[in-house]
Amino acid sequence: KPYPVYTDQDFPPLKNDLILRVARGESVERVPVWIMRQAGRYLPEFREVRAQHDFFTICRNPSLACLVTLQPIDRYAGLLDASIIFSDILVVPQAMGLEVQMLEKKGPHFPDPLVDPTHLARLKTKVDIETDLRYVLEAITLTRQKLDGRVPLFGFVGAPWTLMAYMIEGGGSKTLSKAKAWLVKWPEESKDLLQRITDVVVDFLVAQVKAGAQLLQVFDSWAGELSPSHFATFSLPYLKQIPLRVRAALRDVNPDLASTPMVVFARGAHYALESLSSPNIEYDIMSLDWTIDPVDARRRTGGRVTLQGNADPSLLYAPKETIKQEVATMLEKFGTKERYIANLGHGMYPDHDPEHLRAYLEAIRDESIKLNS
Ligand code: 1CP
User: Fold this and answer.
1) Is residue 208 part of a domain?
2) Which of ligand 1's atoms lies nearest the C-alpha of 46?
3) Is 167 in a helix, a strand, or coil?
4) The domain containing residue 170 runs over which residues?
5) How many domains would you assign to the chain?
6) How do residues 179-191 score in pLDDT, each as one tens digit?
7) Smallest Cα–Cα separation from 129: which of 166, 96, 88, 162?
8) Domain contains 3
């Protein structure tokens, strides 16, 4: 049966719209902040849930996914300005027909990855999001209710190139040599795979918004492994389709939903700052890793997009006083009045101290209020 279409009227009113205002380019009284992997193994309350349940069991059970999504929102009440639904980018390859396991201490593992283009025949030709990924939609709707308007909720997907890389490598990899071999040995078949992933990702993002997601992020975590010309051929054309097609589809459903802000995180892709912020690429927000200087990023993106990021996650190992000083520098470089969302340059690490994350969040709040007053 079709999944219902939800709009703002179906949910508790939003009490904190700071991040939505920044996404629209409006000026704000303080800098909004959220953190990639804010739900995860650095939190003892998450490890407790994980001790009882397998990773993908949590993803597939809406009340467990909701529970862990809310853990950082409860713990850091008033300090986080967005939540992100607990799930994984690899639910898409699963829905396309590949098995994915989450191995303790090793991360994701595909027992039967795509070895050569004959294996493309193993992928489902039509993925029915409302059936195969219904559990994510249910988790989003439930979480939006339980958030009770405290902060907006992000939905997300992996970018086509990053998902292709996992589907071929079969897990994490240092060199991505198998996936990159496809690009040079079988460029046309690679494009076929990228297009098939893009089609699923577009449908999935549209469905997440209809289920209640208020912002969307596309994670191209492996963009930085590509040469600039390979990025231009094998990543950018697919990244570009996503906001165009998602907005067109949402406009047909309900014009209010079509303005949902979209973030692109092309990790490591310095060379793509200009191309990803060009006017024909319709992301509202670019998330930056820590190897990019904020002033440089501002200049190279021409003030056209909101920037998000970008402290090195290792900063959270520092004494709290150092965290505070580094935050002050970061805020000054990005500018605090408009077009900036604080985050880290990548996700939380499992051995981070939750109290040091608190120091980071408090510093962003206090320093940005000071700079804006
Ligand atoms: O056993 C565990 O609990 C595993 C740890 C873990 C967690 C907490 C994994 C395995 N995924 C997640 C959740 C997750 N993954 C979220 C949840 C929401 C939140 O941020 O709070 C999100 C947004 C992701 C996205 C994700 N998964 C990305 C993109 C972001 C990034 O980190 O670059 C990637 C690359 C993955 C794949 C993945 N899943 C898990 C791991 C350890 C990895 C990376 C593996 C590798 O090294 O390649």
Assistant:
1) yes
2) 3
3) helix
4) 8-372
5) 1
6) 999 999 999 999 9
7) 96
8) no
